[in-house]
């Protein structure tokens, strides 16, 4: 909503509240950050040979609407910083991918492949985190 938040207020000290709000924001979008019409394309990209995956994912991201690309870049740079502080917060590339994969990337209609989709969703998010500079540049 349009209310002004004071993040210095003690009610925001629990990092889980902020993280939960961030995940909820992305979950509640009318369409995921990785748009519905590109879901299968991203899944097919992650299934490619390892050397081709980064290029395929990068090209797909370029096809997304500009606001999605910009938001994705800011979000993934932030998540990369979270992983870089893994000694303090115990978050790894894989754990961040597990948390955010299904929120950012999902099919429009769930089929019986939920477990399979989850694996691909996580792999896509993890690949982007690992290859952030290759995908978004510096």
Automatic annotation (TrEMBL):
<keyword id="KW-0343">GTPase activation</keyword>
<dbReference type="InterPro" id="IPR008936">
    <property type="entry name" value="Rho_GTPase_activation_prot"/>
</dbReference>
<dbReference type="Pfam" id="PF00620">
    <property type="entry name" value="RhoGAP"/>
</dbReference>
<dbReference type="GO" id="GO:0007165">
    <property type="term" value="P:signal transduction"/>
</dbReference>
<protein>
    <submittedName>
        <fullName>RHG12 protein</fullName>
    </submittedName>
</protein>
<dbReference type="GO" id="GO:0005737">
    <property type="term" value="C:cytoplasm"/>
</dbReference>
<dbReference type="InterPro" id="IPR000198">
    <property type="entry name" value="RhoGAP_dom"/>
</dbReference>
<feature type="domain" description="Rho-GAP">
    <location>
        <begin position="1"/>
        <end position="136"/>
    </location>
</feature>
<dbReference type="InterPro" id="IPR050729">
    <property type="entry name" value="Rho-GAP"/>
</dbReference>
<dbReference type="GO" id="GO:0005096">
    <property type="term" value="F:GTPase activator activity"/>
</dbReference>
């Amino acid at each position: 909503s349009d209310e002004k938040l004071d993040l210095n207020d003690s009610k925001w000290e629990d990092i889980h509240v902020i993280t939960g709000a961030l995940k909820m924001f992305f979950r509640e979008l009318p369409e995921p950050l990785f748009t519905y019409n590109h879901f299968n394309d991203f899944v097919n990209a992650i299934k490619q040979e390892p050397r081709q995956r980064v290029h395929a994912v990068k090209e797909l991201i370029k096809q997304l609407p500009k606001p999605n690309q910009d938001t994705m870049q800011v979000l993934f740079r932030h998540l990369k910083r979270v992983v870089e502080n893994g000694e303090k917060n115990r978050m790894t590339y894989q754990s961040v991918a597990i948390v955010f994969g299904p929120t950012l990337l999902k099919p429009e209609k769930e089929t019986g492949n939920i477990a399979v989709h989850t694996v691909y969703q996580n792999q896509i998010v993890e690949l982007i985190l690992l290859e952030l500079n290759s995908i978004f540049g510096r």
